[in-house]
């Protein structure tokens, strides 16, 4: 078992390549999981950062998993943090049961993201309360009506309290049409639009270095694993019932901008 004073020597033996690394403590417990395109360099940075002295003092060894690029490293890091729940990782510890806002036939709903189906969705929230708070903020910024948004009861045809304060244009008392209010709501929500999964099934994202190739298998924004060839990747391409927020944040830009090489893994 290595003592903390030996950590720099251990870190220098790590590869200067893309991948995911783990700091292990007593009894091999995972303390921290991170990713980098330069594993050795990033681990050395941790050891030289005064704010991370407690992590270094508790560390007994490092382990790593090579990847063929940054996308694979990000996906594997997010997966392993949720699976192993290391002591020093907090950002990626998330509940899969997320809420989203949908607009269907002009009506606004807050739903579990798994139940949204093909409806247009806006935002990803850890709870219904968080979704309502975002709607309140939007209403305040854009003079929208709490009653029309469904977050406050109002008497039909009578102005809401916020209208008297000039915080609502007046859809509640027929001073604004429902269609005009809906269009202003859509404009306010546009930056929070969540893209539906744009493929019929699973796809593989190909990454390569000089000495390795990986196909990262993804479906419904959820990472299912990596393989070194298409046949092995197809065996990982099982249906997945959940939407993964971390996978979405990692993948939405490269996938929708055609910024990576893809293979079709539809079953």
From TrEMBL:
GO MF annotation terms: hydrolase activity; nuclease activity
What are the GO cellular component annotations?
A: excinuclease repair complex
Signal peptide positions (record): none
Which UniProt key words apply to this protein?
DNA damage, DNA excision, DNA repair, Excision nuclease, Hydrolase, SOS response
Per UniProt, residues of the GIY-YIG domain are 16-90
Keyword S-adenosyl-L-methionine in annotation: no
Question: Coiled-coil region(s) at which residues?
Answer: none
Identify the CDD domains for this entry: GIY-YIG_UvrC_Cho
GO biological process terms, alphabetically, are:
nucleotide-excision repair; SOS response
The protein's name in its UniProt record: Excinuclease cho
Tell me the organism.
Answer: Stenotrophomonas humi
What does the organism's lineage look like at the top?
A: Bacteria, Pseudomonadati, Pseudomonadota, Gammaproteobacteria, Lysobacterales
